[in-house]
Design a protein that fits this description.
By secondary structure, the protein is mostly beta strands. Helix content is 1%, strand content 43%. It is built from one helix and 54 strands. Strands 1-6-7-13-10-11 form a six-stranded antiparallel β-sheet, with no helix packed on it. A six-stranded antiparallel β-sheet has the order 35-37-43-39-40-41, with no helix packed on it. Strands 46, 47, 48, 50, 51 and 54 form a six-stranded antiparallel β-sheet that branches. β46 and β47 form a beta hairpin.
């Protein structure tokens, strides 16, 4: 007799690999075309040239990926773990699995072949640990499970490629099961458990493909060339594993004004366990914890934020479903013990508030992200006039949700939740995934007063919750008052330029020259891009940038490249020039930062020292130059951002200190920024019915009279500059996309003729060539109405703005 209580948990999916073994990769699978030999490959790669409007003389070229229509029917199957749920026996109250409970392990059986297939599912499955398989079931309708007779089997209806059949293995937990004992269920039987899409080794318990009947709807006649495939997967639940909600509170600061700062807080509740120290836990919803609200006990999820030293609380903005609150209790009183008072959304917080925050009833379902908690604070006179470091940290308090009566979720007070902002780990877990250090008796979660220490050696210095250190990490901001040392550093003639999030990520985007290249194909068997035409690595020419800084006080200013958010190629050389003085820096990937060079260009020290200018006038824009030289072998179609930091070295030690006035601008070099992405879809003879939708890797046959529609998406991959920000973006103009279908020694395209043969493989479908941006298309002296076309050129005048795209498409009829 089972109760109506159940507990569901997403388990980690097993990695599934689509492997075509047994030498099939060497087969030249036929394209069925009248007059075209079996095994012919129809290959297509596009090229394009384009211009940067600010420097139209610089050569810029790009190459698309290769699309090949070269396939015969192949079967494919994966078995992956989906979820498990626990049906609780009457009288059992623990949410984890225990004696008498039933665990339902659900698996996804997926067709990863290129044709319809059935699945063979046995009525048996394997288990280890204190359990017994009582049934194997398949989902016959949404939420309806049909049992396969024990010792029998079931062949499913045919599934199209990508189709999924859900199967579950029902396991009873046996008497004698002890806590922390693993209980597993394995569906399918492969030589090595967990293998995916391998040739079937016929033995009992196999889950494998059954080719659909020839002539059935959607079936390509004939047996799959790779035979019958099988797969298996295992799931594990730990007996007595307990639910635990895992919450992460986040915080970022805004750009700030002369008198105020805004903070945006967020909350994430993990859908899966992602910390090694909690492998015996089940991820759960976040529910309420006891607090005091208007002098009355209440159960709420609480996000608390101590008002930073040197400020007073301004306004609070709560997201939907949340209530803004504040407390006047001293910060020596922990947040959960303070008396909280509600406040209307968007109104000023009353004077005397020591903490502000947000509450909700909960539960907050696992997998949920909450955003839009905004806190504004105003600088007091001392901070506004004297400056200083503004430090802030947020806290979240709650409980773990467990099943309650009638399908509800109720708090488990024995499983509290506590996290501090500044990093990406939940529940104050350490950066390596280890459990947080327990607190003293009476405070096992080691809850602090939430008052940020600006001198904490572990801070969230990048303002993106990537701090490293135990517990949380303070978010810090340097307040620079008028008349005191401060600096702005930006793009050419725009020292006050801003970027997407503030004045430390404004940017200048430029591209190195990208010459037209010969066709280079990946010939490494087994490579993910085997057979593809790849953009060649470059030896990029150096790129010169013009930047401008402005200091609030007279005196020298220090300039240097600092560690980028994303690593640069090793050996990237950056030269900063002010007047007649230059200094060169080298990026060292082993150290993860820039070092200085000696007179011959060799790396010298592990800590770079800056270029120091002579004394400059206060509040005067000062121009300087930066040259970025990426090393040989740099990948194409990427942006490499170099942060250039200008700072006032107040203690004259030649080191950039966190508390010194500083500002960054980013000089970003693109190795080309127009990306071509080629796809093809197979159309039926009417040119309407889709046999295989657009993909970069077609797997269907193109029979005589059927059609291949090629689509080339051209995209400007460079970053968008916010309007009126002063950041410098890259447009693309005079784009010319070329498609040449005559295969030669230097041109791999074979969609018109193959090398050494005059036989035409495909013809142009009249009126099918179009461009979504109204590009001008030419046809090698012919017209869009002529079937015999071997070359297309599509000219798009532009400009094509960053992060925008267009597409050029045409249809070829297989002969």
């Amino acid at each position: 007799m089972k109760s109506d209580k159940s507990f569901s948990q997403y388990s980690r999916p097993l990695i599934a690999s689509f492997l075509i073994g047994g030498g099939l990769l060497q087969l030249a699978a036929p394209v069925l075309a009248d007059g075209t030999p079996a095994g012919t490959t129809i290959s297509n790669t596009a090229t394009a040239s384009y211009e940067d409007p600010s420097d139209p003389t610089k050569p810029l070229n790009t190459v698309s990926n290769t699309v090949e229509v070269k396939v015969a029917e192949v079967a494919g199957i994966t078995v992956t773990a989906d979820t498990f749920s626990i049906d609780k026996a009457v009288g059992n109250n623990a949410p984890g699995a225990e004696v008498g409970d039933t665990v339902n392990f659900v698996y996804n059986i997926t067709n990863v072949g290129n044709d319809t297939t059935k699945f063979h599912i046995p009525g048996t499955a394997a288990t280890t640990g204190p359990g017994s398989v009582t049934a194997v079931q398949y989902e016959s309708a949404p939420g309806v499970w049909t049992t396969i007779p024990a010792g029998g089997s079931f062949d499913s209806a045919p599934f199209a490629p990508g189709g999924v059949l859900k199967v579950r293995v029902v396991v009873s937990v046996l008497a004698g099961a002890t806590a922390n004992t693993p209980l597993t269920a394995t569906l399918g039987k492969t030589v090595t458990p967990g293998q995916q899409n391998v040739a079937r080794n016929a033995d009992g318990g196999d889950v494998y493909t059954v080719d659909n009947v020839d002539g059935a709807a959607g079936e390509v006649n004939g047996a799959p060339e790779n035979g019958v495939r099988e797969a298996s997967a295992t799931q594990t639940v730990v007996i007595g594993a307990t639910p635990q909600a895992f919450a992460t509170v986040t915080k970022v600061h805004g750009a700030g004004t002369a008198n105020s700062m805004s903070y945006t807080l967020g909350l994430k509740v993990a859908a899966q366990i992602d910390v090694p120290a909690s492998s015996n836990k089940i991820a759960a919803d976040l529910t309420a914890t006891p607090i005091t609200l208007n002098n009355v006990s209440a159960n709420k999820v609480l996000v608390s934020d101590a008002v930073p030293a040197g400020t007073t609380a301004g306004t609070l903005t709560a997201p939907s479903g949340w209530q803004a609150v504040y407390t006047t209790a001293a910060t020596t009183t922990l947040a959960t013990a303070a008396n909280w008072l509600p406040i209307a959304n968007g109104t000023a917080v009353p004077a005397g508030a020591k903490r502000v925050g947000f509450i909700t009833d909960g539960p907050i379902a696992k997998g949920t992200t909450v955003s839009g908690m905004i806190i504004n604070v105003n600088y007091d006179t001392a901070l506004a006039s004297g400056g200083g470091t503004l430090a802030n940290i947020a806290q979240v308090f709650g409980s773990t949700g467990i099943p309650g009566a009638g399908g509800t979720v109720v708090p488990d007070p024995t499983k509290p939740v506590y996290d501090e902002s500044g990093d990406s780990k939940p529940n104050n877990y350490n950066d390596d995934g280890s459990a947080p250090t327990p607190g003293p008796v009476g405070n096992p979660l080691n809850i602090t007063d939430g008052v940020a220490n600006p001198n904490d050696p572990a801070v969230d210095g990048n303002n993106n919750n990537t701090g490293n250190g135990p517990a949380g990490e303070p978010n810090v901001f340097q307040v620079v008052p008028p008349g005191q040392a401060g600096i702005l550093n930006g793009t050419a003639n725009k020292p006050d330029a801003v970027g997407p999030t503030g004045n430390n990520d404004d940017f200048t985007n430029l591209s190195t020259a990208v010459p037209a290249t010969t066709w280079v194909r990946d010939t490494t068997v087994g490579s993910p891009t085997f057979g593809q035409t790849l953009p060649q690595p470059l030896d990029p020419a150096s790129v010169a940038f013009a930047n401008t800084f402005k200091s609030t006080t007279a005196g020298p200013v220090s300039l240097m490249p600092t560690t980028p958010a994303a690593p640069l190629p090793d050996g990237t050389k950056v030269t900063i020039t002010y007047g007649a003085v230059s200094k060169t820096f080298i990026y060292d990937t082993g150290l993860g930062k820039f070092v200085n060079t000696d007179a011959t260009g060799n790396r010298t020290t592990i800590s770079a020292t800056p270029l120091v200018t002579p004394s400059v006038a206060a509040n005067t824009p000062i121009n300087y130059g930066v040259e970025v030289d990426l090393p040989a072998g740099t990948a194409q179609l990427k942006g490499y951002g170099v942060p250039i930091t200008a700072f006032v070295d107040t203690n004259a030690d030649g080191i950039l200190d966190a508390t010194e006035p500083q500002n960054k601008t980013i000089d970003r070099v693109y190795t080309g920024y127009l990306k071509l992405e080629k796809q093809a879809q197979i159309l039926d003879t009417d040119g309407v019915g889709v046999i295989e939708a657009f993909t970069a890797t077609p797997t269907k046959k193109a029979a005589p009279g059927q059609m291949i529609q090629y689509k080339i998406v051209y995209s400007n991959i460079s970053d968008v500059a916010p309007a009126n920000s002063g950041s410098v973006a890259l447009n693309a103009q005079n784009i010319v996309v070329t498609e040449d279908g005559v295969q030669t020694a230097t041109n791999p395209n074979s969609w018109y003729t193959n090398s050494g043969s005059a036989t035409v493989v495909t013809t142009h479908k009249p009126a099918s060539a179009v461009d979504t941006n109204g590009g001008t298309i030419t046809f090698g002296g012919k017209t869009n109405a002529d079937p015999d076309i071997s070359i297309y050129k599509d000219t798009i005048a532009g400009p094509l703005a960053p992060q925008t795209n267009g597409s050029f498409s045409f249809i070829r009829v297989v002969k």
